[in-house]
Amino acid sequence: MTRPSLLVSDVDGTIVRHDRTLAPSTILAAARLRQAGIRLALISSRPPGGLAVLRTPLGLDTPCAGFNGALVQDAAGRTVAEHTIPEDACREAVARLERDGLDVWVFAGGEWLLKNENAAYIAREQLSISMGWRVVSDFAPYLGAVHKVMGSSNDFARCAVAATGLSAALGEAAAVLRSQDYYVDVTNARANKGEAARLIAKLLGVDPAEMAAIGDMPNDLPMFAASGLAIAMGNASDGVKASAHITVADNDSDGWAEAADRIIHLG
User: Fold this and answer.
1) Which residue spans of the chain are classified as CATH 3.40.50.1000?
2) I need a surface site. Which of 33, 54, 133, 230 has the fewest CB within 10 A?
3) Is the pTM of this model over 0.70?
4) What pLDDT is stored for residue 54 in this prediction?
5) Which residues of the chain have pLDDT under 50?
6) Distance (Å, whole) CA 227 – CA 221
7) CA 72 → CA 84, 89, 149, 213, distances in Å?
8) 114: Cβ–Cβ under 8 A, 6 or more apart, which residues?
C-alpha cells in the first residue's frame, strides 16, 4: 500500500513499555511521523484521562478514544461520541464476573469504583490511568451509565474462562474483550476500537484505507480490520500476529519506533 496518512495506536503493550513509560525511541519516532505528515491518534482501553500524560511528549493534536472506544474525545477534550453499557447487561456482567472469582472494577461518572482495594493489578492500573479509585460496598447504584466494567485476576486461565462464558451470556447486549491477559473488559457493543478508529479517521478527513493500526491484544483486532494496514507488536499473541500485515519487535525492544519508520518509508 501507499504510505498511510494516519496511524492509530494502542497504548499498553504497544506504544508504552511494560513499565508504562515511553521509550526515547518512541518519542523520536512520533516526531518523525509528524515531520512526514502522518497523524498519530491513540485508542486504548484506558480512560481518556489516562491518555493525557502521553499527549505532550508525543506531540499529539488529534482526537483520542478511551474505554475501547466507549468514549471518544476531540483534541480539546470535548466528548465526540459516548457509548455506555445497557444497565441490564452491566448488572449481569458484574454478577457473573464476581461469581467467577474476579475482582470487579466499574468505570462510571468519571470514577473508578471497586470493592477490594487490595486486589492484584490496582497499583499497575493506577500507574497507567493516572486516577485514583473509590471503594464502594455495592455497585448497584452506579450501573446506569457505565463506560466499562473490568474483571481482573492473576489467574489468566480464570480470566479466559470468565470472558468466554460472559460473552456467550451477554450475546449482542455488550462487548467482552481481553485488553490484557489478566483483564476482562466489558463495554457497549458499539464501543470497539474499530468504530473508534473509523470515527477518528472521519474527524481528521482520512479515508480508513489510508489508515494504519498497531496493537498487541485481541481488543485491537477491530482496529486492524478497520485499517488499510495492520501492525502487530512482537509481544502480541500468535492469533493477533496472524491478523496483521506486519509484525515488529516487542514493546520493550523499540518495536513501535520500528513500525513508525516502516510506515514512513512506504510508498
Assistant:
1) 6-82+191-264
2) 133
3) yes
4) 96
5) none
6) 10
7) 12, 22, 17, 17
8) 103, 104, 105, 106, 122, 133, 134, 135, 136
